[in-house]
Q: What sequence folds into this?
């Protein structure tokens, strides 16, 4: 939809045309379109969204838009919106809104909903309990398929998903039934004969990243959440698991780039906050590079004897950093996908060592031949060749081991990515280079 045309229709008060446009648009696309409007136009346009779409559009908006609309809503409008919002979307919104708006919302919802919201807000951050919804279809094993279908028709409109139904007995989860099975089975078949009893579930305190991994591993649409007593308290749906995957990937990318993670979007984060997110790591990396400078100074006699040695430092350091980053990226990915564990450390090290021999040999041969042709100096070619092999082996060992060690001590493996590994590898590559040079040239 063209933004200019939409705004023009709003300004001309052609509300019927605006409403007809919004009626045929997808909820996500409407939220994206509204994000381009100013505050006054946003409030006006939101009120023109068909009622059955409004809650879904609202849940797809960013925090700043939600905050403004909550402030602008009348009590009646706010109550209608909250009645249509799923519980997990309400909790997600409350976690981001200012305290005064949170209080206004809690005062608007019913006592039952307020109790449930407070319970969900009290679950640890990044836990399954914090991302679950309490709105799911529960059945009894004494029901028949026909009774179950009638129950879904009565209550399903208020549930986040009806594709998987949960069979409970005194809140104890005893089985699951898919909507497909219900729709393709005779009405008189008992639910207990149809339900599956091999159930994949999580607890409220399981890490949300582990929950997301289960969705990927088992191709789930929803996952039941149990409390400490084994009673069912909610479900995590696929869309929430996808949000977790995106959040975790974003966090890893920022850490791998030596930036403190931020939950706000790029444009919503102020210039000052962007700078503050980057400065700490840059300071650490800058100060650690002093070690490399000190090592280089120690070998100034070697520079004086053979000035040409200096020209190869950038190539060795860059090669080492690139090799370390390659290994670290693959290991971090393997850890994230639950393919690689700390118990695999020696297997990983042995594999990366063999890879480094092949890579080091290929790079050293190419550079050795280049130096022989360019400088006609066999000794220099040997120094660079051996230094490259040593640097590549060292870099790949560092790159594969550090993420696994970080995971073992409960640190995020992503912090062991490019910038930190590059800084460490730079120091070691200089040591390898000048030790080999002083040994072969007898400096």
A:
């Amino acid at each position: 939809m063209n933004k200019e045309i939409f705004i023009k229709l709003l300004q001309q008060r052609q509300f019927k045309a605006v409403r007809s446009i919004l009626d045929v648009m997808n909820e996500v696309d409407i939220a994206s379109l509204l994000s381009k409007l100013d505050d006054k136009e946003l409030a006006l346009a939101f009120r023109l969204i068909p009622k059955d779409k409004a809650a879904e559009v609202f849940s797809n908006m960013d925090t700043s838009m939600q905050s403004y609309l909550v402030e602008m809503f009348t009590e009646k409008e706010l109550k209608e919106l909250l009645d249509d919002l799923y519980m997990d979307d309400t909790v997600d919104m409350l976690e981001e809104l200012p305290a005064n708006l949170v209080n206004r919302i809690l005062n608007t919802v019913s006592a039952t909903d307020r109790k449930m919201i407070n319970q969900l807000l009290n679950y640890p951050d990044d836990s399954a309990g914090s991302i679950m919804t309490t709105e799911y279809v529960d059945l009894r094993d004494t029901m028949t398929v026909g009774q179950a279908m009638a129950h879904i028709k009565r209550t399903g409109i208020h549930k986040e998903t009806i594709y998987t139904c949960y069979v409970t007995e005194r809140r104890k989860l005893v089985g699951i039934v898919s909507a497909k099975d219900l729709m393709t089975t005779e009405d008189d078949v008992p639910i207990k004969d149809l339900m599956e009893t091999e159930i994949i579930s999580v607890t409220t305190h399981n890490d949300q990243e582990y929950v997301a991994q289960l969705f990927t591993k088992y191709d789930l649409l929803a996952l039941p959440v149990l409390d400490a007593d084994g009673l069912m308290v909610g479900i995590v749906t696929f869309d929430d698991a996808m949000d977790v995957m995106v959040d975790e990937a974003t966090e890893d990318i920022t850490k791998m780039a030596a930036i403190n993670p931020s939950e706000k979007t790029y444009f919503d984060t102020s210039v000052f906050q962007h700078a503050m997110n980057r400065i700490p790591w840059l300071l650490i990396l800058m100060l650690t590079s002093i070690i490399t400078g000190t090592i280089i100074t120690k070998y100034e006699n070697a520079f004086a004897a053979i000035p040409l040695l200096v020209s190869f430092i950038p190539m060795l350091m860059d090669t080492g950093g690139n090799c370390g980053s390659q290994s670290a990226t693959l290991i971090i990915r393997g850890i994230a996908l639950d393919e690689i564990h700390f118990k695999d450390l020696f297997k990983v090290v042995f594999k990366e060592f063999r890879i480094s021999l092949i890579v080091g040999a290929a790079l050293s041969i190419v550079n050795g031949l280049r130096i022989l042709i360019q400088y006609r100096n066999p000794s220099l070619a040997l120094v660079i060749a051996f230094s490259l092999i040593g640097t590549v082996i060292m870099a790949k060992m560092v790159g594969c081991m550090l993420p696994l060690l970080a995971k073992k001590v409960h640190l995020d493996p992503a912090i062991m990515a490019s910038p930190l590994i590059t800084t460490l590898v730079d120091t070691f590559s200089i040591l390898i280079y000048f030790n080999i040079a002083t040994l072969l040239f007898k400096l």
About this structure: The chain has three domains: 3-131, 138-237, 271-441. The domain at 3-131 is CATH 1.25.60.10 (MgtE N-terminal fold). Residues 82 and 339 are 41 Å apart (CA to CA).
